Amino acid sequence: MSFKTGVVLGGLVALCAAGGCGTGFAGKESGGSVPAGTVVDYIHSVLEADRTFYTVHVVERMQRRGVIESSEKWREVSALPLPAQFVQESSSLAELTGGQVRYRLISLNPINKQSGPRSEFERKALEAVMAKPEQPYKGYLTEGGSRYFQAVYADLAVSPVCVSCHNADPRSPKHDYKLRDVLGAVLISIPAPE
Q: Are 129 and 154 in contact (CB under 8 A)?
């Protein structure tokens, strides 16, 4: 994660932790309230930009030049984290700030079975973004007595590295991905107290 992204995400995490991501948050500069859907759109734009940059300008470039490979076992071997692990690691770091913003990758065809849908909302959201990738799926949910706003955005194969990795992995239920295909989705969840 870049310093700039860390600052933006840190600010959004702090804002949400303070209860500012409910149905919207007030801001003197904006003259009103920013809806929760807009907040998650902002978070998604930062996540998508950072992950795309990492995939294209770090992983793809280093592998193409034969400098270093990416690997699921990057901690044990001298390798870069896979782009999916980049998202997982940044989400874990965001949680350490004490904020309540959560995000993770999900898929109807997951390589890692833990990335499958965990609820009916997630299953419906994945089906919706597979059908219309340009349109995120959003809604309010109550879980464990707390209310959340969740949004699911299509996660596209932005690089040949994405395509080759997903197609080559023996655990992948699908082996015919092409560039710009929907691999799955990014799920973002923020607190939404009533």
A: yes
